[in-house]
Amino acid sequence: MTIMSSMMSILQYLQCLPRRSLGGGGSILLAAENFHEIAPPVDYSFIPAWAVFLASFVGLSLIGLIIWWFRHKPKPALPPKLPREIALEELDRIASEIERMDPYLFSIRVSDILRRNVTNQYALPVTRQTSVEFLAALAKSSPFSANEKSLLEDFLNRCDLIKFARYEATSADSQLLLEEATRFVKGEQLALA
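and the corresponding structure tokens:
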């Protein structure tokens, strides 16, 4: 449809309208009254807008909370390490320091590791007793086998010799102490050399 034909149809429509006595341009004003403004959209929702926004907020918040919970979900706690495992790890760590560490300090550290292990695993007061007191208490009653007692006695005597008698120990002596401590913690029998 062309512009000309649409103007013609508007003029024909205006001529059909009843005329009022408004003067020369009265028929155009009357036509303008018949054409009204376009009405805004009608709100036909049964749910108020605030309820839609509230539901959206709550839904998105729940989704965010679920995602956060899965990311920060507490991991199951690992069971505590046994005293034997702790002692073996500490002995492995100190094994790399045999060549660099003074045999006197090494004997103190190995002795402390073994004493802590016996105290924690068997509930014996090794850390609060001297070697002589502890070995005397073991003679009366002991959770250890005869071989374990012998190994422990040999280990404690070697440590005391290095710590208190100031025996001039070498890295070979430190290696022997480490092997005895490891065998005792693992529960292996004393291998006679």
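(Above: one complete record from the training split.) Confidence is low (pLDDT under 50) at residues 189-193.
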